[in-house]
Write a structure and sequence with these properties.
The protein is an alpha/beta fold and 314 residues long. The protein is built from ten helices and 13 strands. Strands 4-1-5-6-12-11-10-8 form an eight-stranded mixed beta sheet, with helices on both faces. The chain has a three-stranded antiparallel beta sheet with strand order 2-3-13. A two-stranded antiparallel ribbon has the order 7-9. Residues 1-17 have low confidence and may be disordered. Residues 1-16 form the signal peptide.
Length: 314
């Protein structure tokens, strides 16, 4: 009975050591406004509102992270928030404020994690590509045809050994494997050969694959082996929050199964952010940087605009 008491006490103590922060705040990196954005004249950067909703619907708040700022801005902000999302988009990775900001953020996040300060990073589509570029230090993308392409997920043999999927239930796993529950919008892909020849497979574990419209197999989900960094080549946020019916954007799945899959990814990342104990020193400082200070624009009513809402920043 003494041994049992010790085990129970030790288990309880061990459980309390993991931070559970029920007020997580996640930063979403802004990006340059580009020609097809249909942005206001004075706008210099933007965020697709679907990413904000994606994070908020899983129980976190959002802070926009400005591009082209001094390193001190990112160091100070990351010390107060609980994770970062690199969103998809249409800017170039090399030479853009988005790309340079991503490098600074990943460097800071890695320093934090190396010191035991848990800090997760998520990349979607272009953000997925950014993660691989920053780690490989060269562009390994291969042209592919994955525009407006709904697919299932073909898991690798190690997917259940990952943080992302170790608690995946059988019903949702079957939906992911057997139904078109994710949507791709990218013209660049990573092959498994690119991953192995570049050494990326020593940094990231490949969790799932897909095929493009020409049957080229590409990597669709990755997770870092030793850091809480995650990337998906598809768009979970679009499944729940984007409703276009244009010539180039009309096949986004909105089935109950697809919605549940997207919510799984959002919930997973926000739960990762709950493991960070960062916080703002005051409510006033916290309030001053939240996305609530800005209003989204209904861009979806413009003809052929594939995005329902965007935030534009001056």
């Amino acid at each position: 009975s003494v041994i049992l008491f010790f085990v129970l006490c030790f288990s309880s103590w061990a459980h309390t050591q993991e931070v559970i922060n029920d007020r997580p705040i996640i930063g979403i990196v802004t990006q340059e406004v580009y020609k097809s954005s249909k942005a206001p004249v004075n706008a210099t950067s933007q965020i697709y509102a679907s990413y904000v909703k994606f994070i908020e619907s899983s129980g976190a708040r959002v802070v926009p992270i400005w591009i082209r700022q001094p390193k001190s801005y990112y160091t100070n902000l990351l010390a107060k928030i609980n994770g970062v999302l690199f969103p998809g988009g249409g800017v170039k990775l090399d030479g853009s404020g988005y790309g340079r900001t991503g490098k600074i953020i990943l460097d800071i996040a890695t320093q934090m994690n190396d010191k035991g300060d848990y800090f997760p990073v998520w990349g979607t589509c272009l953000g997925f590509e950014l993660l691989t570029l920053l780690v490989a230090k060269k562009d390994l993308r291969k042209a592919c045809l994955a525009q407006d392409l709904p697919t299932n997920l073909t898991f690798t043999t190690v997917f259940k050994e990952s943080r992302m999927f170790r608690e995946l239930d059988r019903k949702l796993e079957n939906s992911m494997k057997n139904r078109d529950v994710v949507i791709h919008y990218h013209q660049w892909c990573f092959t498994t050969q690119n991953f192995s020849t570049s050494g990326l497979d020593k940094y990231f574990k490949i969790l799932a694959l897909n095929q493009d419209s020409r049957n080229m197999t590409f990597v669709s989900i990755i997770e870092a082996l030793h850091y809480p960094y995650f990337g998906v080549s598809f768009h979970p946020e679009k499944v729940v929050f984007e409703w276009p019916m244009t010539k180039t954007h009309k096949r986004i799945p909105h089935s109950p199964e697809a919605i549940q899959v997207s919510q799984y990814f959002g919930n997973f990342f926000v739960n990762e952010a709950r493991r960070s104990n960062h916080s703002f020193p005051s409510k006033e400082m916290e309030d001053s940087v939240l996305i609530y200070n800005y209003n989204p624009v209904f861009t979806g009513k413009s003809r052929n605009n594939p995005t329902v809402q965007k935030y534009f920043f001056q």
